[in-house]
């Protein structure tokens, strides 16, 4: 992950790039999204089947919402950043955080906690669960249903079904997961 630091305003969420159709849902209002927009905590980012959106959060995290996804920045506090993915896939490029900062991504079945890494997470609309894959660094994934957690290392992936009740079994990341993860380095962490 990038270790370069940028000037940062407190709790800043900025749109760096938009391709195809994408919008933000704020207070039950759908607004087209464009590069340069500043978003608010809690805004839901929705991409169409042809859309992608690149965002930065506090100039330490960059994330790309891939086609057909719904995600949001739940908390943009620089010391306690939280994203949510309810549908589709996002790819994250996170700079190394200070010791007093946390970064988490919540899906319908699990939460991932990281300190500086490149990874992806996918939420399958609550039907099939969630998947995580790591390109660089380590991601701790904890399930909601059992409270189990596992450290997911570079090159590995984990699937957590909606009705998960067994043991966590990381596997090697494969084909499309690896291709998706290759995007991580091109996602800016600074706006």
Descriptive overview:
The protein is mainly beta and 191 residues long. 4% of the residues lie in helices and 50% in strands. It is built from one helix and 17 strands. It has one helix at 175-181, and strands at 13-19, 22-26, 29-32, 38-39, 44-47, 52-57, 61-65, 70-75, 80-94, 102-106, 110-114, 118-123, 130-136, 138-143, 149-153, 156-160, 171-172. It has a 17-stranded mixed sheet that branches. Strand 10 (102-106) and strand 11 (110-114) form a beta hairpin. The longest helix has 7 residues, at 175-181. The radius of gyration is 15 Å and the shape is globular. Residues 1-5 have low confidence and may be disordered.
Task: Give short descriptive properties of this protein.
17-stranded mixed sheet; disordered N terminus; mainly beta; about 190 residues; globular; about 50% strand
Secondary-structure blueprint:
Elements: E1 13-19, E2 22-26, E3 29-32, E4 38-39, E5 44-47, E6 52-57, E7 61-65, E8 70-75, E9 80-94, E10 102-106, E11 110-114, E12 118-123, E13 130-136, E14 138-143, E15 149-153, E16 156-160, E17 171-172, H1 175-181
Parallel strand pairs: 9-10
Antiparallel strand pairs: 1-4, 1-6, 2-3, 2-5, 5-8, 6-7, 7-9, 8-9, 9-12, 10-11, 11-14, 12-13, 13-16, 14-15, 16-17
Number of helices: 1
What's the number of extended β-strand segments? 17
What fraction of residues sit in β-strands?
Answer: over 45%
Average pLDDT level: 90
Overall geometry: globular
Topology order in helix (H) and strand (E) letters: EEEEEEEEEEEEEEEEEH
Sketch the major β-sheet: 17 strands, mixed
């Amino acid at each position: 992950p990038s270790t370069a630091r940028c000037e940062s305003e407190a709790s800043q969420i900025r749109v760096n790039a938009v391709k195809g159709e994408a919008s933000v849902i704020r207070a039950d209002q759908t607004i087209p999204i464009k590069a340069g927009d500043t978003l608010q905590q809690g805004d839901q980012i929705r991409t169409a089947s042809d859309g992608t959106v690149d965002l930065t959060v506090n100039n330490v995290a960059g994330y790309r919402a891939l086609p057909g996804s719904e995600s949001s920045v739940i908390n943009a506090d620089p010391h306690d950043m939280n994203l949510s993915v309810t549908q589709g896939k996002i790819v994250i490029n996170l700079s190394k955080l200070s010791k007093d900062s946390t970064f988490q991504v919540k899906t319908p079945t699990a939460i991932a906690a990281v300190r500086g890494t490149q990874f992806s997470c996918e939420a399958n609309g609550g039907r099939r669960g969630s998947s995580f894959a790591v390109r660089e660094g380590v991601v701790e994934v904890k399930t909601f249903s059992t409270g189990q957690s596992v450290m997911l290392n570079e090159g590995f992936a984990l699937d957590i079904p909606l009705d998960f009740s067994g043991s966590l079994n990381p596997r090697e990341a494969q084909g499309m997961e690896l291709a998706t993860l290759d995007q991580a380095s091109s996602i800016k962490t600074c706006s």
